[in-house]
Write a structure and sequence with these properties.
Helix content: 10-25%
Largest sheet: 5 strands, mixed
Number of helices: 2
Distance between the termini: 31 Å
Radius of gyration: 12 Å
Order of helices and strands: EHHEEEE
Structural class: alpha+beta
Oligomer: single chain
Number of strands: 5
Length: 79
């Protein structure tokens, strides 16, 4: 999967590890499909205080493109 420059910048700025991204994309806890053609991959990251990692992917392209990544504050942490 290709990744935008913005995506790569967010990894660095937000201290998000590549292994977490890989895990979220290959073993997501949830996938949301949105009307704008994006898919949101969600994974709870235990080693980061059980916060929810959200990866937004443009899935309408021939080769999916990871657009951005962040820890979603709107989702509650669970112990």
């Amino acid at each position: 999967m290709d990744k935008t420059t913005h995506f790569r910048k967010m990894l660095s700025e937000r201290n998000i590890q590549e292994q977490w991204v890989d895990r979220a994309l290959t073993e997501p806890d949830r996938i949301e499909t949105h009307e704008d053609g994006t898919k949101h991959y969600l994974k709870q990251i235990q080693e980061y205080d059980n916060r929810w990692l959200r990866i937004i992917v443009n899935s309408e392209l021939e080769k999916p493109l990871a657009v951005t990544v962040f820890f979603d504050r709107r989702l509650r942490r669970t112990p």
